[in-house]
Backbone:
């Protein structure tokens, strides 16, 4: 079973990959072998996801579908789109 992680449980976590599943947003986190499911404080696990490229760094911006809570995480290992 996929473990649920609260969005504010580890603000420093580094995301290697993400995907949308039927039951919520799945994240692959640096230093962990298994995917986790990101859970909001409202209990929902569905997020609007945006990848933001700035200064050679990539951030993952997530916004809760249900209550609008937002969070930002660092991403690693993402290939920048070719210009
Ligand atoms: Zn929420």
Residues:
């Amino acid at each position: 079973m996929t473990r649920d992680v609260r969005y504010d449980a580890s603000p420093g976590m580094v995301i290697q990959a993400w995907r949308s599943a039927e039951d919520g947003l799945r994240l692959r986190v640096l230093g962990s072998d298994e995917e986790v499911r990101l859970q909001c404080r409202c209990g929902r696990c569905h997020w609007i996801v945006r990848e933001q490229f700035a200064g050679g760094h990539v951030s993952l911006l997530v916004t809760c579908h249900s209550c609008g809570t937002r969070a930002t995480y660092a991403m690693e290992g993402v290939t920048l789109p070719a210009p």
